[in-house]
Model the fold of this input.
Amino acid sequence: MDNQHKDSAQWYGTTILCVRKGGKTVIAGDGQVTLGSTVIKHTAKKVRTLANDTIIAGFAGATADAFTLFERLEGKLEKHPGQLTRACVELAKDWRTDRYLRRLEAMMAVADEKTSLILSGTGDVLEPEDGMIGIGSGGTYALAAARALKDIDGLDADAIVRKAMKIAADICIYTNENVTIEMLPRS
Done:
């Protein structure tokens, strides 16, 4: 195992994918929680809705950090209702400057019906051009699969996410097939 994976095993223990197609926004996360090379849990929920089900957020990193960041983001969304980008920029500022938050090694994928954003502990708030996001250990596999599937007629955002997450789980040992999916608009 290389030093990068050994030193920050939690960082590599998940896959989060965001896909937009046909007016739908879908974020999925696998359920595997690992500590180093040991699977601790198979059914964790790493994706949740926020702000009265108008925002979806997925988290890659340590579990305790996830709760902290979800709570902080919820607070920023309450201060800036309907302004996802502003709330995320405010959270990123805190994340970069707050002594406690600075120690969190994590990433978040956050989306509403119009915008998809990646948030990182380095203070980055990035909006991918195509609205698609893949973070965590299997994120690049899931993102590549989703991009390949996106132009196939008959596959909606939900179907693309399910197929892409399956592909990532088949490749990444830190990703499993127990997937939590949230969608906007909610059906």
